[in-house]
Amino acid sequence: MLGYHFSKLKITDHKNPSFEKLFDLFKELLLYTAGDFTEALDWLNELDRKFKITDNSYGMGNFVEDLKSKGYIEDRKGDGSFEITSKTEQTIRKDSLEQIFGKLKKTKLGNHKTRFSGNGDEIQPETRAFEFGDAIDSISATDSIKNAQISGGVDNLNLSERDLVVFEKEYKTQTSTVLLIDISHSMILYGEDRITPAKKVAMALAELIKTKYPKDTLDIVTFGDDAEQITVKELPYLKVGPYHTNTVAGLEMAMEILRKRKNSNKQIFMITDGKPSCLKEAGGYYKNSFGLDRKIVNKTLNMAAACKRLGIPITTFMIAKDPYLQQFVEEFTETNNGKAFYTSLQGLGEYIFQDFERNKRKRTK
């Protein structure tokens, strides 16, 4: 007799729901503590005492042991203190992408689409006559043979160059992006943490480019009193310092990075919450935190104009709504012929994602 044989179900692998719940919270705390495992764990213990997150079946000790066994933390110094691993850093980036941009549809990895056709990667259903220089692999064999049959008949098949047709290919471009992140002291002032959302956006954008547009480049530059280029790996550990806002230094470094990129499409995204208030000159610093200092503002506008001359648009994401700051951003944006968004922290990621996707539809020069 045909049929199915059933046996007792044996569960050999499953995720501990208590671990997953704690781990999600722990990853958020790592961002707030700039990757400090000990501080994040202290906060988690405090939350556990207050809100009874764990129970007798699974406690904080079990959680730490699971973190070690799963490769999320390790004792790098050999003194019993733990640090997060690259596996944790990657997990945080993926979570940031999921939180901010949502689930992305699987697409052909490669470059940015444009409305122009030409040499590219993705074959289109449309065809055209063969031209000298067209790749052999783009020839439509079926359509070409059909043309030869029409020209010479079935009994006298003679395929010639004029019978050949090729598939159109979608022209694609590569884009180089520099993301500027303000790390001046105002990013944590007035009881509002602005640096953590900025870090999340940077990690999400990095993961987006890595998975969907691997031929693109993303460089990250922080600017306070000075500018510094950092790696994606360093993002979870990024901290705000007791700095002023040297926007000029950030733009100078971004321009230098983009000069070395061979892509024709280049852009700068700048996340800031304040006005430029610092310049470096003659081996020292010129600082003014009060109002808009025309000396500093004019230097900043000169950088915006220099970027415009190089064909580098700047998109400014201003996470502050003071009228006089908006007036400065408008002047800065007009000088560069760029764009500006005045957004809350909650909408920051969505704005950047939408603008990044919109900017991809460009044709290289």
Describe the structure.
This protein has 365 residues and is of the alpha/beta class. It has 3 domains: 17-84; 117-171, no CATH class; 174-359, Rossmann fold. Helix content is 39%, strand content 21%. The chain contains 10 helices and 12 strands. It has helices spanning 17-32, 37-51, 60-69, 86-101, 141-152, 195-212, 247-259, 294-309, 323-336, 348-359, and strands spanning 73-74, 83-84, 112-129, 165-173, 175-182, 217-223, 227-230, 265-272, 278-281, 284-287, 314-318, 339-342. The strands form 4 sheets. A 6-stranded mixed β-sheet has the order 7-6-5-8-11-12, with helices on both faces. It has a two-stranded antiparallel sheet with strand order 1-2. Helix 6 (195-212) packs parallel to helix 10 and helix 7 (247-259) packs parallel to helix 8. The longest helix has 18 residues, at 195-212. It is flat and about 85 Å long. The N and C termini lie far apart (71 Å).
